[in-house]
Amino acid sequence: MSDLPLGFGIVAKSTQDCRKLDLDAVVALHRADIG
C-alpha cells in the first residue's frame, strides 16, 4: 500500500485500502505542517 498525496502535508490511504479493513478498524487522517 502506498500513501496518496492530497495536498500540502497531507497523505492518506486510498479508498480501496480503507474498504479492505476490518469492521472494528479506525481510519484517521494525519495532517502535518513541515516548514
UniProtKB/TrEMBL annotation:
Cross-referenced InterPro entries: PUA-like_sf, PUA_sf, UPF0113_PUA
Coiled coil: none
Annotated signal sequence range: none
PROSITE patterns per the UniProt record, alphabetical: PUA
GO molecular function, one term: RNA binding
Organism superkingdom: Eukaryota
Organism per entry: Gossypium schwendimanii (Cotton)
CDD domains: PUA_Nip7-like
Protein name as it appears in the record: Uncharacterized protein
